[in-house]
Amino acid sequence: MTSSQTAEPLDCVGIGFGPSNLALAIAMQEAGNGLSCHFLERHPDFVWHGDMLLDGSRMQICFLKDLVSMRKPTSPFSFLNYLHEHGRFEDFINTRTFYPSRREFNDYLRWAAGHFDAQCSYGQEVLAIEPEWDHGRVRHVRVHARDQHGQERYWLARNVVIATGGQPCVPDAFAGLNGHAQVIHSSRYLSAADRLGKAERVAVVGFGQSAAEIFLDLHGKGVAVDLIARASTLRPADSSSFVNEIFNADYTDYFFHRPLEERRQLVGDFSSTNYSVVDNDLIEEIFDTFYQQKVMKDERHRLSPRHEVLAARAQDGQLQLDLRNLDDGSHDMRRFDGVVLATGYRHTPSAAFLDAMAPCLESLAPARDYRLPATPLCDVGIYLQGCCEATHGLSDSLLSVLPARAEEIAVSLRQTSAEQAAPAVACAAE
């Protein structure tokens, strides 16, 4: 059954209500632009990487890069005000760190999101965005969604902001094991960790931050782990001061106006800030773990760099991986009680969101204000957040630019809404 949720089109419908659209909601409220906006989130409540809130895990960016401070340090939605509201301001100062625990930052985000409960519908999985043609023009779209009970609804909108986060990247070797209880992507690690509680040996595929954290978590639980990756070693994240300037808000403008090939080169040059890298303190802890194995003559954990998983299959209650050594081409068949894929994410909008809009869009490359170029017959604005690395730089899928990007999109929405209203005003005057 399908029912309408809005009789009149909203100025904006946001798809996803993670940090990106939360920052946008705050920016729009603080701008006081009077636009009607509603957000649809597939999770039953607000959560930010809930399955990676491991004991001891900390943020990798300064707490000042919260939802608002880089845009408006005096905002009541700042992390500092969150600490004040919860009576922990002085205690946090005494921790002498710029990097709060991941659990605390998640709590901060939940606190901020709680101010917008009336503007967000949780448990809504968006199925499609469809144009509504009116005398040869598209003045608004229909956003279809389905709740956890199978009830379908739709919202009418003059603009849509898509911010659905990354989609788990699963290597081809594991495609045939989709949904298998013993194959777990890091995005579901804690929810599925009980399946690994009695495991004797687990493979962790990947050499990035998530792989390192999961390895140490399993080590602490007494599980034997094979840490496997194509890379030659665990590499430290480059967080040096000059390199970190690529996450400054004004760098986005610089990056956007570079030629295509130069942008690609810049992403490659600075990939060590974000991709397949690990905080140095974790690298040292993992190295010491393997060193102590040598001291104790204990081969419980195995480190397998330069190994590629060619195939994976379930057999007799275990998982069998065919590993190829990239140095000599040899094969090694290993059996595990479980596999954790710390293989990252793809940051692309769902095709279901944009397929129906194809006749209305000139390109899938967003403009500087994150809006997709539309045909002359389409008045609707489709904006992207978190999937514009190729055009806006490495920081696009990270927290660093949230406040600046939110302000830019809020300004664009205000301008677009004024243009959308102009024809109606002219007709009324006639």
TrEMBL record:
Cofactor(s) the protein requires to work: FAD
Keywords: FAD, Flavoprotein, NADP, Oxidoreductase
Pathway(s) the chain acts in: Siderophore biosynthesis
Lineage: superkingdom: Bacteria
Pfam families per record: Lys_Orn_oxgnase
InterPro entries: FAD/NAD-bd_sf (IPR036188), Lys/Orn_oxygenase (IPR025700)
Family: Belongs to the lysine N(6)-hydroxylase/L-ornithine N(5)-oxygenase family.
The protein, known as: Lysine N(6)-hydroxylase/L-ornithine N(5)-oxygenase family protein
